[in-house]
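Here comes my example:
=====
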Amino acid sequence: MDEKTAIVMGIASPAYILKTADGGKSWKKVYENKDTAMFLDAMVFKNQKEGIVIGDPIDGKIFVAVTNDGGENWKKTNKLALPKAIPGEAFLQPVALI
């Protein structure tokens, strides 16, 4: 995000999104999901405030969460109105989603 601020994700259950505002000296957990099916695939930010993370399907639905405050808070959403996932379907590469 800048020389002091970064956001990273731990991709598999439990999945975490962590944020630093001091160049990595300390990290704050801003999202956690312990669902055993959780696997995050990609994160992208449209600007300094708006971001989105996508993950493999859980219960047949592609996982999507968004932030509107620079990654401080994340909320699961159906913003993309994606259809039900086909069994075995998952993401292979990130795409521009926002």
About this structure: The mean pLDDT is 88. The first strand starts at residue 6 and ends at 10.
